[in-house]
Known about the structure:
Distance between the termini of chain B: 34 Å
Radius of gyration of chain A: 19 Å
Oligomer: heterotrimer
Number of helices of chain A: 13
Number of strands of chain A: 0
Distance between the termini of chain A: 36 Å
Strand order of the largest sheet of chain B: 5-6-7-3-8-9
Number of strands of chain B: 13
Order of helices and strands of chain A: HHHHHHHHHHHHH
Strand content of chain B: 25-35%
Largest sheet of chain A: none
Shape of chain B: globular
Structural class of chain A: mainly alpha
CATH architecture of the largest domain in chain B: 3-Layer(aba) Sandwich
Number of domains of chain B: 2
Structural class of chain B: alpha/beta
CATH topology of the largest domain in chain B: Rossmann fold
Order of helices and strands of chain B: EHEEHEHEHHHEHEHEEHEHEEHEH
CATH class of the largest domain in chain B: Alpha Beta
Strand content of chain A: under 5%
Number of helices of chain B: 12
Amino acid sequence: MRRYLRVYAILGKLSLETLLAYRANFVNSIVASLSWGAFSFFSIFLLVSKTTNVYGWTPTEIILLTCGYSILIGVFHTLFSTNFERMADLINWGQLDAFLLRPLDSQFSLSLWWVNYASLVRIMLGAGLLWYIVQRSALPVPAFTLALFFILVCVGILLLYSIWFIVATLLIWFPRMSNVIELLFNISGMVRYPGEMYQNALGYIFFFFLPLTLIITTPVKILVRKSISWEMILLVAFAICFFVISRLFWKFALRYYTSASS
Amino acid sequence: MIISVSDLSKHYRVHKKEPGFLGSLRSLFHREYETVKAVDDISFTIDGGELVGFIGPNGAGKTTTLKCLSGLLYPTAGRVSVLGFTPFDRKTAFLKQIALVMGQKNQLWWDLPASETFLLNKEIYEIPDSEYKKTLNELVDLLEVEQILKVQVRKLSLGERMKMELIAALIHTPKVLFLDEPTIGLDVVMQKKMRDFVRAYNEMHKSTILLTSHYMEDVRQLARRVIIIDHGKILYDGKLDQLVKKFAKYKVLSVILESYVPPDKLKEIGELTDYDFPRAVIRVPRSASNVAAAQILQKFPVDDLNIEEPDIEDIIRDVFTRKP
Amino acid sequence: MRYVRIFFIFFQDAFVNRSTSFVWFLLALFNPLIALLFWRGAFQSGGAALIGWSYQMIASYYLLLVVANTLLMPHIEMEIARRDIQMGMLSNYLTRPFPYLLLKLFSELPWRIIQTFFAVSVLLFITIGLRVNVHIAQDPFLLVFTLVIAAAAHLVAFMFKMVLGLSALWVTDFGGLSEFADVVIIIFAGFVVPLALFPQWLRPIAEASPFAYMIYYPLVSLLGQISIAGMIRVLAGEIIWFSVLFVLYRVMWTSGIKKFTGIGQ
């Protein structure tokens, strides 16, 4: 609805104004973003500096995975992460009330309240390096492939978001385990490794993580052109499925919400 | 009938935690639960424009009831209807017409002027421009905050912040207003201003206001009708002056003595609740108050004598402890 | 006697929050397992010929890394920066006849113990239940010396975190600095790959940094990769770094406290 778009535009404006009101906060968020952005590349560099082949992926391709990851997680952190952290605190202290009283879908307002502009640097980092590698290795990337890549990244973001939201909803029953959001940050990091790494290992345990393993692997595979059609469909199916579950689960969980006593 | 509550209950299952290390160990293996009945089978109705005071001690169930009425909590049993809606459904049309103001609630953006939050709410509640301007000016006038509209919220004092929170909460002119402990933590001057504001708002907009408090002065100043709640149950629902007549079985004689009279002699008249020479306070049954007054004037050297109704606090305390 | 009692109170508090501890443990468990999966893939496709470590060595490294992490890495800096300094709780400590440093140490140890309990349980399950071979040093003398190195390592890490936490007295927003520190520690303490596998140009820097002494050296010592002479050098390094950090802490404390009480809450 148009109202939601207008509201979101204002939220984006307010986030920006707040940043400008306190530059120190902004600088620190950028430092944090850059640190983790650099880390994801540096760590993968350390891992592949002494290897030549991992599950059929060359070091360059693995770095491309990290580029894709950087873009995806950059968007995710810009739009969602801060809100999830705050949601965990709000649930822990029984302070969801303000969000539940507004004539605004609570999942929407909780997930999108704050825009973390500092994380844009991770997107730039990832996109920049991606473009550089693609140019340097003279990888042919027709416009259609690029479009498909970005669409699948978006689908991946939707899937990641839905998983996070479902886990965050569990906090309604276990409010004290708010550090599970930290765990989610780490678990999300697993998507920057080749999906095959998990699919071949210890079967059943990692089947549990199956949706996650598709998130970055699939779009990047398209970019380097390995055949994949069933994974694409699976990714889209998972994304839609998990999103619907996240909404239904949230509405159900609210019955068990006990707000803070006065 | 704007608000209708039938047989409302809200129960919580809480697991009992024993203190100490052994207690924590024991709870690893065996969890004991108990049911807390925050609200236990209550019913009442409220008409449009009424200003109702909901009083009770801490933990009585007042806030829980308000939260059930505003859709925050899911009732364990019973039916609730506000403005024709079921609150827990949280329909947009419903939420646009209500407001819940609680002391601790913090909906203003901290680093920005309050006016920015108002604009956000304007979009959320879809308030038309003209109506927004009108309401904003009215509230700003009423609360006298024109000078600080553009000041960052973090730089405001507690009182100023509370006023801004109020404006943010009322900018959409709700038809039903739930106020939870509106004067808690405020100094005496602010408390009076808050009460004046609530009264003025009720008169101006004819909105239905339900306020909870454990301060008698709030109720005395604002509510013509009170609902007394304790341990999740309603003890009284009716007019404030009826409450006094119904439950106050005695009157209070306040005496200023000219010269010292031994307590025993005063006790012959009635119950001596306070004796700090020259002032004595004696409780007598309602019907006997005039006779007792005459007796005092006859027997003792009296400078001044007053016949008073008992304090509302005392009446209500008696209602809670079920004194006859 | 009062030390024991104080410690016990902190332990009770940590115990009540054991579910939070469990999630922290999962965090410590997760990343080494992922890295290990990565190496498994590299070894399986023959792409790990260059590293000079056997798969068993690598596996042992990462599995023991979980325990080293839960046992040796304190996380006290957030509490110092946010709760004590920014929210002013430090005032409470200033009026107590008990050193702040010790109180923080006592409050942090129970969390290490509880999380290590989880870690060791899982490790035992993996080695005994899943019959995965974990290689550690056999010589009892080496093992005892490893314990000494590990204890010193914890103190070095603890001192570093205290210094980091106190920096909140000067830095306006602590968040960025602490995230940056986290990243540096993760890389240079050997959480991503063992320092021995770092590229040539980076190895000397990494091995001299205080972070190597926090996790990496105790770990490879346990793995039996260091000689006695090497262990002595490690211990010397730990003593040096501890002293440097301790002096830094005292300096920051004395000048910082003046700043703190001057501004108030």
